[in-house]
């Protein structure tokens, strides 16, 4: 694999200010504010209909917001047509021209920008090699695998040397092994080229493994934007806590002084303390210990092997179902119907009002 030359330019700063976009009575973006640093890869993540794809289309110039600004290096590009924004987009469906070779597909945008033929050929060959397809320039899309077609689409976008790279679920049509390989390749290229990148995905693993920061959206609004580690360990809202990873809702009782009692253990509350009363403690599976206890009131419902750990499903005395991750070597005795005790790790917990599930 060829080592990339230093970036032609550093990444551009991007700001989204109070963006609003509605389709009839459906509000897709409801005052969205985001800042993307130069050279950063930001993932937009959220459930279907949360507004992440609309936000990307606004950035690309395919949708025009009713209100708000998109500032690229301080310039509001909302009035600028898509073909003049100096951005490049990679789509889920590849969108290659079937009658053009791989090299001609990569060079297509350059031709539209009146780049000379020798420069087009040189740059197409360069970027095909950079994405791991040297010698494939003469092949047509139907002669390439899905992963190879997406690499051509990526090379086409990068060959433009854009100020902003936009990725619209580019890996969702690929099989699992190819997805992992290609997401590592995209991240490598993005880092070495220094291109500011916004990446839309519905796949949490992709977002958390690739992005510098992840913006979690819900109902057209931003719930939290933070590093993957912070999102997982310190979610800012109940929605983020339960959307990212797996989260148990465990019955608890809030007392005075920011303390909550859960499964017989008194723990400090993470964040603002709730009023005294019944709450739910939000606890990750790895923060619950499950041990054999012939007098225990909880019972094992089932197990799922996850390699070094096994996920154990347990029914608490009140019928609440929780999941706990235990070392696989310790899970051999936890057969369905086994009586156990469940205890949380002694660390601060996030609490929420509402019923358990």
Structure description:
Helix content is 24%, strand content 34%. A hairpin with a 2-residue loop joins strand 4 and strand 5. Helix 2 packs across helix 3, helix 2 (102-112) runs parallel beside helix 4 (146-159) and helix 3 crosses helix 4 (146-159). The longest helix is centred in the middle third of the chain and has 18 residues, at 176-193. It is of the alpha+beta class and 357 residues long. It is built from eight helices and 20 strands.
Q: Terminal Cα separation, in Å?
A: 50 Å
**What sequence of helices (H) and strands (E) makes up the elements?**
EEEHEEEHHHEHEHEEHHEEEEEEEEEE
Q: Could you say which overall geometry the principal axes of the C-alpha atoms support?
A: elongated
Give the amount of beta strand, in percent.
Answer: 25-35%
Average pLDDT, rounded to a whole number, is: 91
Unreliable runs, pLDDT <50, ≥5 residues?
1-9
Q: Which structural class matches the secondary elements? A: alpha+beta
Q: How many individual helices?
A: 8
Largest sheet: 6 strands, mixed
| Proportion of helical residues | 10-25%
Tell me the radius of gyration.
Answer: 25 Å
Going across the biggest sheet, name each strand in turn. Answer: 6-7-8-3-9-10
Structure summary, number of beta strands:
20
